[in-house]
């Protein structure tokens, strides 16, 4: 079965590993380059995007992961992970880099500070069974998207907070801490489809 890695240098990677594990998806914490080998997908968790950026460079994960993403590896970024998958970031820290891939601009800390964290139930395109519980913690929002980016969910004020473009999925919020695992199921489905296609073409 395809293995989904979770980038485990900082942030709430344990929660993502637990959700995937609970769904019966083979997972692996990724801290060193060799742990990227053979993955069919990767989750970039929430945390602090500037720290994750720095640590992936220190742990020499940045270049190999960038290569895999450029080659089409499916990725799901939550919160800080969304920032790391964005081509453009507003209110970035000095020197902050992203992997990019999603043709969009995100605004970091857009919803305010830690005390402005909030929850909401959001309709999510492609997810059945009612709205998705979304927890926002110093979350970014998506300020503008290119033509290839599909907006899957919006905040109550109408900001785009979930997007997909090809093999990349991103949410401003944290489905890994709500007990509602439908976003992870959606990603696992994207990974399975990609793995099957890759097998058929090889
Ligand atoms: N504000 C954080 C950042 O800029 C993201 C917060 C989160 O991931 N919960 O990376």
Please characterize this protein's 3D structure.
- Belongs to the glutaminase PdxT/SNO family.
- InterPro entries: Class_I_gatase-like, PdxT/SNO, PdxT/SNO_CS.
- Pathway: Cofactor biosynthesis; pyridoxal 5'-phosphate biosynthesis.
- The protein has 5 helices and 12 strands.
- By secondary structure, the protein is of the alpha/beta class.
- The protein has a single domain, classed as Class I glutamine amidotransferase (GATase) domain (Rossmann fold, 3-Layer(aba) Sandwich), CATH 3.40.50.
- Strand 1, helix 1 and strand 2 form a beta-alpha-beta unit.
- Glutamine binds next to helix 4.
How far do the termini sit from each other?
A: 17 Å
Helix content: 25-40%
Query: Can you list the strand order of the major beta sheet?
Result: 2-1-3-4-12-11-10
Rounded average pLDDT: 96
Output the CATH class name: Alpha Beta
Shape: globular
CATH architecture: 3-Layer(aba) Sandwich
Give the C-alpha Rg: 15 Å
How many β strands by DSSP? 12
Which labels suit this protein?
202 residues; Rossmann fold; 3-stranded mixed sheet; 5 helices; binds glutamine
Short description:
The chain is 27% helix and 28% strand. It is α/β, with parallel strands linked by helices and 202 residues long.
Secondary structure: elements and pairs:
Elements: E1 4-7, H1 13-22, E2 27-30, E3 41-44, H2 49-58, H3 62-70, E4 75-78, H4 80-84, E5 86-90, E6 102-107, E7 118-122, E8 132-136, E9 141-145, E10 150-154, E11 160-165, E12 168-171, H5 182-201
Parallel strand pairs: 1-2, 1-3, 3-4, 4-12, 5-6
Antiparallel strand pairs: 6-9, 7-8, 10-11, 11-12
The protein binds glutamine.
